[in-house]
Fold this sequence. Notes:
two-stranded antiparallel ribbon; 1 helix; 4 strands
Amino acid sequence: xxxxxxxxxxxxxxxxxxxxxxxxxxxxxxxxxxxxxxxxxxxxxxxxxxxxxxxxxxxxxxxxxxxxxxxxxxx
Length: 75
């Protein structure tokens, strides 16, 4: 685990992250879980799916019509 100091940037607090930790973009999502701050790259596919579900609400999956089971006569 690495340690970093917070510094003031305008009216906010900031922290510098190593470039190798954030690949493929300059945007991250922040969330708070208990006392922890979670930083997730925007290009994270699972996070993108979770955001879509959160924005769109419950996904309504279409139920496919099931074929009828053939009856077995004489048993």
